[in-house]
Amino acid sequence: MLKRLIPREYNFFESFDQAANHAVDAAKLLLKLTEHYEDADPIARELNGIEHDCDDVAHRTMEQLNKTFITPLDREDIHVMILRIDDVVDLTNAAANRMAYFGIQKPTQHSVNLAKQVVRGCEKLAQAVHGMHSSRNYEQVMHDCIAVHEVENAADDILHTALAELFATEKNAIEVIKWKDIYETMEKITDRLEDVANVLQGVIVKMS
User: Do 183 and 155 meet the contact criterion of CB atoms below 8 Å apart?
Assistant: First the structure.
């Protein structure tokens, strides 16, 4: 009877892991779509399924956050982390959908390069998130967060180069609009990755 009266502790770190792993899976599918555009439709549908799964993790985590009195991290940090990781997957899905359904001829090398940065950023973030299970891993988590910042900087550089080339060479205004939207959506993914890395670094500072 006593066990029934004591609520089971919710593992927020496990939810972070699940969401971050969904982000990695989504990023790999985005890269696959840029490299195998002939399979764009089925890849986009598969990625859409991952986006729904990540939404479920985020919703479940927010529900538990509202029910949990004592949390392992500040409530605001948990809130921001899970929503920003979900944003990463949402934006990755949006970028894939834009390429699949905008009727582009084929992905550009800039979009492939951006997708590669997204994969690297998601993998580093997943490592950082998993490292938060133990304070013994904090030093490595900080290194992984720095790598995420480097990814964001690299994506910025690719975006600037891609837009400069687009405006200089593309004469079709509709194509300019399509690719500007795609490039900027892909770069925003790395912005959200950096948001999560900032939260992780802040948590480590608080707990050190």
Answer: no
Pick one of 1.20.58.220, 3.40.50.880, 1.10.3720.10, 3.30.450.40 as the CATH number of 9-207: 1.20.58.220
Q: How far apart are CA 144 and CA 132, in angstroms?
A: 11
What are the domain boundaries of the chain? 9-207
DSSP classification of residue 106? S
Angle between helices 109-131 and 173-207 (to 10 degrees): 20
20-72 tens-digit pLDDT: 999 999 999 999 999 999 999 999 999 999 999 999 999 999 999 888 888 88
Residue 7 to residues 12, 64, 69, 70, 73, Cα–Cα distance (Å): 15, 11, 10, 11, 18
**DSSP single-letter state for residue 133:** T
Contact partners, residue 196, CB within 8 Å, separation at least 6: 80, 81, 84, 85, 88, 125, 129, 148
**What letter would DSSP give residue 38?**
G
What pLDDT digit, counting tens, does each position of 138-181 carry? 999 999 999 999 999 999 999 999 999 999 999 999 999 999 99
- CA 114 – CA 35 distance, rounded (Å): 12
Q: pTM of whole model > 0.90? A: yes
Q: Report pLDDT for 8.
A: 53
